[in-house]
């Protein structure tokens, strides 16, 4: 299998002094996901947890929802012309009776890139395919003071980031702030897929009593993945996109951005936050 990190020579310049030294970089390789033998998607990822990544991706596509929906995942032998296995192609075989939705090229694009499709069609697609409507689940109450402690705890758990400085991370926390799981990847969306895929494999979906924290911004795609996994709270250390806010408002997702220290912006779903004072509006 591919390595999570690789070493490369770098010319280092510090205060005018020039030196040569090896540097540790995060690995980035393509992963092709096949569904029942048919090519479905290609994503650039950091090798590791590839089966979980594929499973989580298919949760966000509405293909998988329960542990029994997944029969097995294997690396495809003979992935190259000479027949060797690059460990960059996986085939997901669904369980008996799983209905495969019509996953069009258009939908495939926005779930494998970071840009996302814009417009009402994107929102409708998620709302109509979500297995566990967030608005219908028992409310989770989140203390803002507890929420404010999560970024530092996520950062402390990023082992590969410490060596490379080039990885995003996603973490699941329980209602009382316990770190449930954390995954790192060159792409935020892949890190989230790895979390969700591991939850599917262990039979823990829906994740209806958790908070998802992501490094960087909160895109539409990340909000979509949270909704499809039944996660009621999504927090990011940077800004959300406008479409992510629209999706959160549409589905009942609590969306928090700019979570830095004791400061944060709540863009939707403020009813889940234990606010001691009334929110002033202009």
From TrEMBL:
Keywords: Cytoplasm, Molybdenum cofactor biosynthesis. GO terms for biological process: Mo-molybdopterin cofactor biosynthetic process. It holds the Pfam family FdhD-NarQ. GO terms for molecular function: sulfur carrier activity; sulfurtransferase activity. The keyword DNA damage does not apply. PANTHER family: FORMATE DEHYDROGENASE, SULFUR CARRIER PROTEIN FDHD. Required for formate dehydrogenase (FDH) activity. Acts as a sulfur carrier protein that transfers sulfur from IscS to the molybdenum cofactor prior to its insertion into FDH. Belongs to the FdhD family. NCBIfam families: fdhD_narQ, PRK00724.1-2. This is Sulfur carrier protein FdhD. The lineage of its organism: Bacteria, Bacillati, Actinomycetota, Actinomycetes, Kitasatosporales. The gene is fdhD.
């Amino acid at each position: 299998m591919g390595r999570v990190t690789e070493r490369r020579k770098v010319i280092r310049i510090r205060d005018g002094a020039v030196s040569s030294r090896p540097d540790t970089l995060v690995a980035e390789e393509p992963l092709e996901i096949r569904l029942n033998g048919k090519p479905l998607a290609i994503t650039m990822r950091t090798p590791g947890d590839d089966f979980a990544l594929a499973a989580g991706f298919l949760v966000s596509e509405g293909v998988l929802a329960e542990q029994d929906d997944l029969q097995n995942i294997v690396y495809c032998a003979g992935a190259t012309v000479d027949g060797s296995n690059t460990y960059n192609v996986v085939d997901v075989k669904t369980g008996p009776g799983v209905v495969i939705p019509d996953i069009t090229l258009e939908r495939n694009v926005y779930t494998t890139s970071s840009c996302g499709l814009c417009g009402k069609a994107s929102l409708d697609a998620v709302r109509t395919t979500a297995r566990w409507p967030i608005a219908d689940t028992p409310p989770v109450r989140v203390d803002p003071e507890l929420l404010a402690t999560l970024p530092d705890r996520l950062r402390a758990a990023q082992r590969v980031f410490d060596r490379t400085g080039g990885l995003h991370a996603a973490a699941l926390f329980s209602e009382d702030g316990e770190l449930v799981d954390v995954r790192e990847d060159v792409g935020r969306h892949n890190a989230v897929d790895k979390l969700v895929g591991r939850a599917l494999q262990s039979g823990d979906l829906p994740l209806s009593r958790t908070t998802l924290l992501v490094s960087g911004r909160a895109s539409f795609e990340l909000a979509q993945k949270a909704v499809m996994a039944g996660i009621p709270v999504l927090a990011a250390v940077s800004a959300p996109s406008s479409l992510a806010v629209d999706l959160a408002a549409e589905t009942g997702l609590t969306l928090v951005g700019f979570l830095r220290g004791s400061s944060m912006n709540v863009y939707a779903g403020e009813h889940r936050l234990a606010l001691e004072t009334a929110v002033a509006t202009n």
